[in-house]
């Protein structure tokens, strides 16, 4: 332990000395940007303060549209003014690439170079394939089928409160597996956790370990945790790579047989579209993308962005999906929580669903989903009040970039503070009040005042799928159950969030009491 302490101190000293001797001159205007109190800010992140408390530290500094935050030897610039954000996010992706993931061997090895962190030609190629694949993979039937499985599982436990966040994670991971690569994990068959999910969760837990992120040398020490980490990483990688190999074989067989039938799962679609477009994408790139999707869809512990120095991510189709589906799990939990807290809203939402779908439990069609105006407003208000990403992944400009009166220097870490924008009283009346009606009253706002899926050229490729999934699931749950918030809920006063890259409920727990209608 003493040895590790000495190593840690030496590494910190090295970074401090390096920064002192290599710090660039501040560009015009940046000396006037107010700074967040470093010690208070870092302590709040490392001790896991809720996101609203961390944002409280930020907001009491200044109401300027841009502020600075120092995390050790790393400096971040946060954009908070909607016009600055618009100017920033609409820049070309070549001018404003995603940050380079240079710290942490585990982070780099796990996340790779998927659509989330890739740049230039690699990003454009992946985005083209992802857009086309997502359009083909939209399936109300898969969502509906898994909703019925969810109900079967919930019906066994209606005598006590149910952790709806766990239920939403299980549901989204099943939908993810079938939509992404035509695989069923079995998470809705029982309350047991499938072995592959156990391996994945252990890898994620270790990947996010802040000591390993800040001090990569720890990855090379003869620790039992390093050995176990590598074993679980191999299990997870082999699972993904075997799926890719199987889908490649199936695609080749289909071509050989001149079959007109093509699977609509994302992996098969990307392989087929890549063949047609003459785009070569190797198995490792596909693996990276799948991990992106996997994390978004399921992981609730993807946590080091705000708490652990908000820095990196990186591996390609799996990871994009994971970010999308984790956001879905959180937002569904937020929506269900608020409908429990405000029964009049739940009643109004259910009446709309019955008016559009009828009383019989059924999977809504795409046309019916479009008629669910109030349901859509509830989902949007959930995304506004608790955006899945409090802070967007930092960009590192290749050159000086003009934002308002400021020049952002090249290679700096510049972020968009989504939480601040979504709770700005200059934009939203009573911003901390949950009020779906604000999305129904026709009020005109700045186009960048609501950015839960980012905006500009690098907005979320799967946002339409996520919104469609939420509308279908929420409407079906309203047809099946009524629900209330237990009196002893830790979320009785407010929805309590831990602060992470992707936000998650406190203690991963949102207990709701359900009863069949």
TrEMBL record:
GO molecular function list: heme binding; iron ion binding; monooxygenase activity; oxidoreductase activity, acting on paired donors, with incorporation or reduction of molecular oxygen
Cleaved signal peptide residues: 1-22
Residues annotated as binding heme: 460
Membrane-crossing segments per the record: 321-340
SUPFAM superfamilies hit by this protein: Cytochrome P450
Pfam families: p450
Keyword entries, A-Z: Heme, Iron, Membrane, Metal-binding, Monooxygenase, Oxidoreductase, Signal, Transmembrane, Transmembrane helix
Cofactor(s) required for function per UniProt: heme
UniProt similarity note: Belongs to the cytochrome P450 family.
PANTHER family: BIFUNCTIONAL ALBAFLAVENONE MONOOXYGENASE_TERPENE SYNTHASE (PTHR24291:SF50), CYTOCHROME P450 FAMILY 4 (PTHR24291)
Listed name of the protein: 7324_t:CDS:1
Native organism taxonomy: Eukaryota, Fungi, Fungi incertae sedis, Mucoromycota, Glomeromycotina
């Amino acid at each position: 332990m003493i040895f590790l302490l000495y190593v840690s101190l030496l590494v910190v000293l090295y970074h401090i000395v390096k920064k002192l001797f290599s710090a660039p001159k501040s560009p015009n205007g940046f000396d006037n940007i107010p700074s967040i109190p470093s010690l208070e800010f870092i302590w709040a992140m490392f001790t896991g303060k809720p996101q609203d408390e961390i944002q409280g530290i930020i907001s009491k500094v200044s109401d300027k549209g841009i502020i600075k935050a120092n995390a050790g030897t790393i400096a971040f610039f946060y954009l908070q003014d909607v016009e600055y954000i618009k100017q920033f996010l609409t820049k070309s992706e070549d001018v404003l690439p995603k940050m380079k993931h240079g710290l942490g061997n585990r982070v780099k090895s796990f996340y790779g170079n998927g659509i989330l962190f890739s740049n230039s030609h690699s990003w454009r190629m992946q985005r083209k394939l992802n857009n086309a694949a997502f359009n083909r993979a939209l399936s109300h039937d898969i969502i509906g089928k898994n909703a019925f499985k969810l109900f079967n599982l919930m019906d066994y436990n209606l005598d006590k409160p149910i952790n709806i966040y766990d239920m939403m994670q299980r549901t989204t991971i099943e939908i993810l597996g079938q939509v992404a690569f035509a695989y069923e994990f079995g998470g809705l068959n029982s309350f047991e956790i499938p072995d592959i999910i156990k391996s994945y969760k252990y890898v994620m837990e270790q990947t996010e370990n802040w000591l390993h992120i800040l001090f990569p040398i720890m990855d090379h020490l003869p620790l039992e945790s390093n050995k176990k980490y590598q074993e679980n990483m191999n299990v997870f990688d082999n699972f993904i790579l075997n799926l890719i190999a199987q889908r490649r074989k199936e695609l080749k067989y289909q071509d050989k047989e001149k079959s007109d039938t093509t699977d609509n799962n994302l992996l098969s679609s990307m392989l087929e579209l890549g063949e047609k477009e003459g785009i070569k994408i190797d198995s490792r790139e596909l693996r990276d993308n799948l991990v992106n999707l996997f994390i978004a869809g399921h992981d609730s512990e993807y946590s080091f962005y705000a708490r652990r120095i908000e820095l990196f991510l990186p591996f390609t189709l799996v990871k994009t999906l994971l970010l999308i589906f984790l956001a879905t799990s959180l937002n569904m939990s937020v929506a269900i929580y608020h409908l429990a807290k405000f029964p009049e809203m739940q009643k109004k939402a259910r009446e709309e669903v019955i008016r559009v779908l009828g009383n019989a439990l059924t999977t809504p069609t795409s046309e019916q989903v479009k008629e669910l105006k109030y349901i859509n407003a509830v989902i949007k208000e959930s995304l506004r009040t608790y955006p899945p990403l409090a802070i967007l992944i930092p960009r590192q400009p290749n050159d000086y970039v003009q934002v308002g009166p400021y020049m952002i220097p090249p290679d700096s870490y510049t972020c968009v503070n989504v939480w601040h924008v979504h709770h700005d009283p200059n934009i939203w009346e009573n911003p901390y009040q949950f009020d779906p009606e604000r999305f129904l009253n026709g009020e005109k706002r700045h186009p960048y005042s609501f950015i839960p899926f980012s905006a500009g050229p690098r907005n979320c490729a799967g946002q339409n799928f996520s919104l469609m999934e939420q509308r279908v699931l929420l409407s079906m749950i309203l047809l099946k159950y009524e629900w209330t918030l237990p009196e002893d809920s830790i979320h009785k006063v407010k929805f309590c969030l831990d602060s992470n890259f992707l936000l998650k409920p406190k203690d991963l727990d949102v207990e709701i009491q359900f009863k069949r209608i």
